[in-house]
Amino acid sequence: MDDDGHRRPEGVSDETVEALGSLSKALETTECARGHLFAFHQLTGSADFELDRAVELLRAAGHPEWAERVRTEILGRNVIPGHWTFQIVEAYDRTYYQPFRDLERAAVEGLAGGRDHLYEAELKEVRRTRGHPDHTSRPGRPGRTDTRTPDGPAG
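Below the sequence we write its predicted structure tokens.
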């Protein structure tokens, strides 16, 4: 994205930039929570498949009654009433995650002309060391010293 894509549009207040930054941060936290939900889904599924091996090993070790208990009581069991983990992921996405994403996108479109990460872009400009090759204002310029300020070249 060019510099203008991260530059605050005319008339957007500091408070609006900060509010959109907070909304974006909350969505990023939700993205992490969703990742953990997928990890829960995959780990629970992996454990369920490992139960097949446990059942076989219990039978082979001469414990058919324990093998049958594992097979009938735990293998394939709902993790909450009526739900396997994929259904929890789907419900989360449909009920919370997608509406949150849609609202955050609408807020950025409506309040900042669709320009993402304004708070972070302005924070980067404040925190970077001008003239340092690893503190350039934008990607794609390795080894080049950048002395630009948010308002144009440094003078």
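The chain is about 60% helix and 5% strand.
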